[in-house]
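Lab manual, section 2.4: Encoding a predicted structure.

Procedure: take the sequence of the chain (110 residues), apply the prediction step described in section 2.3, and record the output as structure tokens. A sample record is shown.
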Amino acid sequence: SLLSTSSSSSSLVLWFSVLSGFRDFDSNTVAPLRADLAKKNGFPLTVEVKTMVQVQLGKLKTKRVGIRVTCDGIRGFQPKNATSKTPTPGTTTNAKCKVDLRIKIWKFTF
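Recorded output:
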């Protein structure tokens, strides 16, 4: 869920938290997850955000244009206290993001 956004000139910073409900898993699914959660350097995350923006080029201002931002190289950490309600910050030092412009003409998206 998106908590807050902050923007300045040409950059946009997003703060969000990842929430998930309880699910039943079999042992084959849990084994790799448990190994990743136990690592001291965290577990790998890939974040994909799809949103709409308004583009302005000189005096030309467009209506809402879709963009997709995909970031890889983010490391998440398991909270030390399993019942804690405070989120654990991730590490983004090696993160690389890719932005795709999504232009829709009739039914086709490019």
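Check your result against the sample. DSSP finds one helix and seven strands in the chain.
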